[in-house]
Amino acid sequence: MRLSRYFLPVLKETPAEAQIVSHRYMLRAGMIKQASAGIYSWLPLGFKVLKNIENIVHEEQQRAGHIPMLMPTLQSADLWRESGRYDDYGQEMLRITDRHDRDMLYGPTNEELITDIFRSYVKSYKDLPLTLYHVQWKFRDEIRPRFGVMRGREFYMKDGYNFDLTKEDALHAYNRHLVSYLRTYERMGLQAIPMRADGGPIGGDYTHEFLVLAETGESEVFYDSEITDLKFGSREIDYDSVEQCQAVLEEFTSRYARTDETHDEAVFAQVPDDRRRTARGIEVGQIFYFGTKYSEAMGANVQGPDGKPVPVHMGSHGIGVSRLLGAIIEASHDDKGIIWPEGVTPFHCGIVNLKQGDEAADAACEALYASLAAMGLEPLYDDTNERAGGKFATMDLIGLPWRITVGPRGLKNGVVELTCRRTGNSEELSPEAALEKVGRIYGKVQA
Ligand code: 5CA
């Protein structure tokens, strides 16, 4: 993309309404614009990161064997009356009446809708196990929407639902989700710690929240510091293997790590003094096993091996896709702007032309642009007439992990400058060597 043809409305001023750094940078980098309280338009740069995050979620869900689909945002109140949640959900549910006076709602989650789909088609235990998921907008009429996309009213969520014959099978689905979530967050450059939590309006005794530690997090958390040394890494996992998924769950949940809802001082006191931590965290996902709560209320039975109907065991599993943008920025920024992890960056590499209109500089930038694109990478080329300082400030603000700076003086010596956003380190390289290094970083050139 050439910046002169893009739509990147960066702001020089810090917006007064933004209280936390991720919200400030998302507004300043022209990623989002508030449409009304807790509701945002996703401008091109924000939309690109949102889609990158969504793609990682899809890839990791499908790697775990879960099946994508799409359900609507508007739901009929009737299904929620069947489950009993129409009245229970309270004021967070946005209720709508259509022209025929039918009660509708903007879905805050989809347990009812998916259970209705399941009961309509699945009649036999032979069709289990089954896990369906979608990524779709949700609406919760939060009393205090704040911090930008972090606590929105309209937000983008991946929600998945497993259907199993037995509790044991459903707990495998739970463990499988835990493993796939560890991989998902790590690919986004995040450490998200599974912590024992509370079921809330979804219900269930087994539930973990995934928390990214950050001072601005809304949740208070308590944990054994050893947990932050754990890495899922690039290990291969057979998601059908009960033992393998169980082993990962045990590894990642055996140490003390709880949200304030389930925190127990007496148990926490058993953690050695020097390892006890109290901190704040951002909840980027939650998994639940709730047994037959919805299947019994809504008659989602299958014929079991003995021919008798049994209600299916279920769980639901959510990732806060839009919230993740805020969480990643909270975890990865400096005083100049965002620092995108390579896995989610909106453009792989920036190109800054120090002297637009200079024949050699223009030609070198064009050649770099074409070569990066030929490698399958997306560069952002600042081809505007802005002065160099302004170009650098914009690149630093929008946080591309790598930048190639091209100027007439360097070109006379056959070099351009390659700068790492995270460390700030620059090196002078030939254009070919710079291309090769960027290509290698993104796995496009073999080491
Ligand atoms: N049905 C279950 C699992 S699919 C469910 O709704 N779980 S949840 O309530 O925990 O939501 C899943 C994730 O959505 C949360 O972990 C959080 O990351 C995100 N989320 C929840 N509320 C908001 C909100 N108001 N703004 C942004 N993200 C939110």
Description:
This protein is α+β, with helices and mostly antiparallel strands and 447 residues long. The chain folds into 2 domains: 3-337, Bira Bifunctional Protein, Domain 2 (BirA Bifunctional Protein, domain 2), CATH 3.30.930.10; 347-441, Rossmann fold, CATH 3.40.50.800. The protein is 33% helix and 27% strand. The strands form 6 sheets. Strands 3, 7, 8, 9, 10, 11, 12, 13 and 16 form a 9-stranded mixed beta sheet that branches. A 5-stranded mixed beta sheet has the order 20-19-21-22-23, sandwiched between helices. A 3-stranded antiparallel beta sheet has the order 4-6-5. A hairpin with a 5-residue loop joins strand 22 (416-420) and strand 23 (426-429). Helix 1 crosses helix 10, helix 6 crosses helix 7 (242-253) and helix 11 runs parallel beside helix 14. The longest helix is centred in the middle third of the chain and has 21 residues, at 167-187. The radius of gyration is 24 Å and the shape is globular. The mean pLDDT is 97. The structure holds 5'-O-(N-(L-cysteinyl)-sulfamoyl)adenosine. The site of 5'-O-(N-(L-cysteinyl)-sulfamoyl)adenosine has 21 residues, from strand 8, strand 13, strand 16 and helix 10.
CATH class membership of the largest domain: Alpha Beta
Derived structural class = alpha+beta
So, the CATH homologous superfamily of the largest domain? Bira Bifunctional Protein, Domain 2
**Average pLDDT value?**
97
Radius of gyration equals 24 Å
**What do we call the CATH topology of the largest domain?**
BirA Bifunctional Protein, domain 2
Question: What's the number of helices?
Answer: 14
Globally, the shape reads: globular
Low-confidence stretches: none
Distance linking N and C termini: 27 Å
The count of β-strands is 23
CATH-level-2 architecture of the largest domain: 2-Layer Sandwich
